[in-house]
Amino acid sequence: MKDSYKCYEKVLIVIVTAIVLCFSVHVRASGVGNKESAQEIVNEYFSLIGNDWDKFAELYTNEQINSFKNFLENEKNIREYVGVLNVRKAKLIESIEIKYDDVKDMIDEDYTGKKIKIFAVGADYDVYEDTKYFSEGIIYNFLILEEQNGQWRVNTLMQIADPSLLKMKGYHFQSDYNITENIMEARENGYLVNGKGKVFSDINEKEIDGSLVDEYAILNKRTVPTDDTTISYGTYKNGVYQNRKSIKFHDYCKGVSAGEVRGKSFDGTARKAVDIAIKTYTWHYKIVPIDPTHSVDIKNTMQSYKPEKISENKKVTSDYNAVKNIWMESYKGNIFAAGYGAGDYNSSGKNGGRLMQNGCRYLVDKKKYSFYQCLHYYYDYSIDGSTGGPLRFFDNNKIDLGK
Fold this sequence. Notes:
Helix content is 36%, strand content 21%. It is an alpha+beta fold. It has a four-stranded antiparallel beta sheet with strand order 1-2-3-4. A hairpin with a 5-residue loop joins strand 5 (191-193) and strand 6. Helix 10 packs across helix 11 (314-323) and helix 10 (269-287) crosses helix 13 (371-379). The longest helix has 30 residues, at 2-31. It is globular, with a radius of gyration of 25 Å.
């Protein structure tokens, strides 16, 4: 009888244990997707930086894990402190969930059909060297999570192009958030400041003797690319990082002009307007890189870069050179992400914040608009363009053109 009872007791224990395990799994699975689970991923993300790169890579979406592991194990990347490999360690200071609709204009990615969460994350970084991708001190970024098979995964870490906007939307941060606001304001002035308020370079990556952030305002505003300025160009496939290369800024923009506007009917005024939009868009992402974790300023998926097409039409080069030294900024003096697209051959899209290439050609053909007028037509007073007033134009000497 005792043996039978013991046998029964063991069976009962096994059954109860199985039920408990099943219940635990069920609870864990049903809990995935709530804010707490997403927050745990955010916490783990920063605790793993510099400590366990394999586990760090495994936090990313399924499609990106192997790509990240390859990137993080690459000896050249390690030696040159590329992207997140520049960070020795990071300590999460603050994390606040952000509504997508409040920041969608700052996020140049299509998340249609995906369930995502966006966090504004402030972290204290210890780096090997100050760069615009990661620098010493406290800096806030966006960390975007994506739900896959009931689990939260990291989609991307990106810089906050307009930190002051979040305050305007009613989000409240610790006082350290002001540093990130100062960093982005300094970049609009053409200088790179780290998370401790030290100016370490201009935007063209020319080293500067360090000074306090309060002093950068005395420096000349409107720093523009030189002939030696480069853009870090990343290649991605299905949203997954492949590689990167450095391209001279003006060569890149000229290659985009050749790729974006191939018809000769655009030659002249319409192409010049598109070229200025291309330059402004590209310079914005030189200031606020799209993918700091890989040290990438701009992705191949964002513009049609076709340098091989330049030789097919001599006007590509001559039109670009005609406006090479002309720059556009918003009414507030910001270099903004000047969006543009094909559009229809008509006058639609006025003040929409997006230049319509075919529409610009229509305005030139039918209304004899100058390229300045075309740009004013689409960007003036627009939410995504020159908020608050008309565009301002200036030259390489930082002198207003009054157009």
